[in-house]
Amino acid sequence: VGLVMGNVAFLRKLYMEFNTTFVFIIDFGMMCYMFALGIEMDPFILFKKPSKDAQVAYAGIIFTFIIACTTTPFLSYFTDQTKLLEYTFSLSTLLSSTASPVLTRLITRLKIGKSDIGKLVIATGMHSDFVCSLLLSVGYIAMPIDTFCNDYDQKKRLKKAIIMGCALLGQTVLTALVSPIFMSWVDNENPEGRPMKGSHLVLSIAVMVMACASSTIYEYSPILSAFMAGVCFPREGRVSKWVIAKINYMLTTIFFPIFFLWMGYAADFREFDAGHLLTWAKLFILIFIAIVSKVVGTVIYGMILGFRWPESVAIGLLLTTKGHFHIFLAVKVASIFLTFSLSSHIIKIGCGANTSTGITMVMAIFFTIVHTPSVIAYIIKRAKKRAPNHHMTLQLLDPLHELRMLLCVHGPDNVPASINFMEISRGATPPGIVVYVADMIELTDQIAETVERGADGRTTAVKDAATVEMRDKVTNSFQDYVDENSESITLKRTLAVSTVTNMAQDICVLADELMIALIILPFHRNQRQDGKFDMGHQGFRYVNRKLLRSAPCSVGILVNRGLGSIEKISRTQVSLNAAVIFIGGKDDREALAYAGMVAKHPGVKLTVIRFLVDSSAESSRLAAYRVNLPEPEDEVGHDDECFAQFYEKYINGGRISYLEKHLANAAETFTTLRSFEGQYSLVIVGKEGGMNSILTKGMDDWQQCPELGPIGDVLSGPDFSMTVSVLVIQQHRLKGEIDGLDEDFSIM
Fold first, then answer.
1. Is the peptide bond before 373 cis (omega within 30 degrees of 0)?
2. Cα 268 to Cα 271: distance, rounded to the nearest angstrom
3. Which residues form the Cation/H+ exchanger transmembrane domain (predicted)?
């Protein structure tokens, strides 16, 4: 878009009027970009034993340098032969580098960031980006931009390099010594949960500006100076995280659109020598160096590390990704056809290359990234052939795989029932369960002021005092339980803080990222002391109903009416009487699958109650209903097959009890449900169990909470027992998700 809009005739005239403003905006934006990039880099990795990702990065860089050094002389026809060494070093470093911010965002958004190959590529890209940026920063001392100009005074070159090097060294050492002490003091003065003091914020920014500007006094590049200053600043701490978040927001929303317009304006297609054969030769040679050298390096070193060659090729192709800084260098350094340089000093037009070269390099950079989605699609395709699929339903869950559950709570009131629910769901050991306890926090104006987003934009922290206290209570309660019952339970904490309108979507994203098989939501109404329900939180009811429509996995709503009052469910004697009602349908089959997990708990006495249509009923009206309410034959077949397997596995083995009820209509269904009053503490039902059956016909006419289904609504209604908790389960509606592939797949 930038290339097209930058070359529209009437727009170019408009851009020309703001050319000077463009210069300042681009330079300032790139300084911020490089400063944030530097903060995110870890300089100490250079002093550690090279890890696997570092070795792959070095292999790619070395091979690119070798191929670039042997190929660059063919491009030197447009440069002064006396500047061949400088040009070769600059071009080789540019082509060896990887744009780690672009690569990380691409891999994360295309959902392979948690896989073994995704983690390796991200770490390798960051290492490559850091090393090459460091080489450019050091190399600029000996080869500043005006080195390439024909009228550059070579006699002053050594003196200028020494002064510039001493200035950069002094800036780096001083920043590395002072910034950690200063930032630590600011963090101590501004603890988490409180707004930062304005004076400390201004002072912190002033220190950063001074650190970035010191070496520029001696004509060092302000952009590279910002990178070196960022490397020396501490990565941890409130100020650093705040700066990274603000810079990334500014770059994404304001700078990058302007940057690409500037790039299009600078790459004037009228100057592109498309009719010259050497122009296309330059383009293909640059693409060859950037792509082939990385691939060759990673394939050869991948063989040493034991990688398969398809994965090695994929890694090499991903590491060729270039980004904003490389485009900036291509336009401002390689082509040198603008009237300003990296240090914003005026230079002469024609002191090096021509305009066509700059456009060629921009086009080459484009071709280093355009293939990335196809490469990732290929990785996912190979992973699907090798890795087991992650099924989003309990019915299809591999018994050898752990159950991953997202247990949502509104506050401490939901904790006792949630703990008991977690206890009866723990199943066999192994594989056990992984439980993510998520606090559902409605985003109010007060809480919004204390919300802090992580630098990656994916993590959220709430510093509101009341919210922090509430979360601590919830965490402590769950942790105390896990400390006493650590076997087969893995507990993790997470957070869903959003407006009521967006909370369901956030929970869906969270469940998708964590590969959750079952989301458990608390009922929006709480039981009062007299046993009746209060009016509840209508916002949370909206969230529950929206999640039932859009969740990427199975969903359960837990209606707590006494489950939380059970102090402890024993594993040596029966502490809980539970029942599961089976009429038919996908949701009832899912409820039966969950009941199979509950049946493995020694402290739970489970009864399976199956409702069947009484075939001996002689009512003509009933016969008419049977005609009007036919159940699909395939559904009936699935029901019979599922129940037969369950019966053989659990009921024949004597683990659980079985009760069969032959009923004629919905009235008898309601009466039978009423007869269970006082017998069970927990009843498990499917949300749409028997929806096409005569046994529930008409029950939805008086439903108070349709999200609970006909059976669940009756069991949780005011006319039913006040001591029976209800779990309503809805099976995941398969909608062609990403073929069920786990995000943390392993193929290497």
1. no
2. 6
3. 1-373
pLDDT of residue 257: 86
- Residue pair 12/3 in contact by the 8 Å Cβ criterion: no
CA neighbor of 204 nearest in space, from 233, 177, 226: 233
Contact in structure between 50 and 58 (CB atoms under 8 Å): yes
Helix (H) or strand (E) holding 409: strand 403-409
* 3-class secondary-structure state, position 235: coil
Three-state DSSP at 736 gives coil
For residue 563, CA distances in Å to 253, 442, 473, 482 come to 49, 25, 19, 18
**CA 158/CA 142 separation, integer angstroms:** 8
The answer to whether the CB of 265 falls within 8 A of the CB of 333 is no
Distance CA 734, CA 468 (A): 37
CA 228 – CA 213 distance, rounded (Å)? 11
Task: Dig out the tokens for 435 from the structure.
Answer: 């439980």
Torsion of CA 538, 544, 549, 550, to 10 degrees: 120
Say how many Å lie between the first and final Cα of the chain, rounded: 37
Hey, what are 19's tokens?
Answer: 């050319």
Q: Count CB-CB contacts under 10 A for residue 186.
A: 20
Q: What order do you get walking across the sheet with 518-522 strand by strand?
A: 489-498, 433-442, 403-409, 518-522, 554-559, 725-730, 682-686, 576-582, 604-613, 657-663
Side chain identity, residue 252:
T
* Rounded Cα–Cα distance for residues 249 and 243 (Å): 10
Q: What is the DSSP letter of 659?
A: E
Q: Which two tokens stand for residue 487?
A: 């076997």
The CA distance from 706 to 700, in Å, is 7
Q: Which residue in this structure is represented by tokens 């630590």? A: 184
Query: CA triplet 659, 693, 717: central angle to 5 degrees?
Result: 70
User: Minimum mean pLDDT among 20-34, 89-103, 382-396, 588-602: which range?
Assistant: 382-396
Q: Which element (helix H / strand E) includes 433?
A: strand 433-442
- SS3 labels along 512-557: HHCCCCEEEEECCCCECCCCCECCCCHHHHHHHHHHHHHCCCEEEE
Specify the pairing of strand 554-559 against strand 725-730. antiparallel
Report whether 43 contacts 175 (CB < 8 A): no
Is 0.85 surpassed by the pTM of this model?
A: no
Question: Residue 100 is inside which H or E element, if any?
Answer: helix 100-109
Nearest Cα residue to 184 out of 205, 159, 213, 204: 204
Could you give phi then psi for residue 652, rounded to 5 degrees? -65, -30
Amino acid at 491: L
| Both structure tokens of 345 | 């000093």
Q: How many CA atoms lie within 13 A of 398 on its CB side?
A: 10
Q: Per-residue DSSP letters for 608-628?
A: EEEEEE-TT---HHHHHHHHH
Rounded Cα–Cα distance for residues 21 and 8 (Å): 19
Per the listing, tokens 């122009």 go with 279
Q: Is 496 left (phi over 0), alpha (psi -120 to 50) or beta?
A: beta
pLDDT at 532 over 90: no
| HEC letters along 435-498 | EEEEEEEECCHHHHCCEEECCCCCCEEECCHHHHHHHHHHHHHHHHHHHHCCCCEEEEEEEEEE
Angle between helix axes 277-305 and 84-96 (nearest 10 degrees) is 60
CA-angle at 735, arms to 734 and 736, nearest 5°: 100
Instruction: State pLDDT tens for residues 686-741.
Output: 988 766 678 888 777 777 888 888 888 888 887 777 788 999 999 886 543 344 45
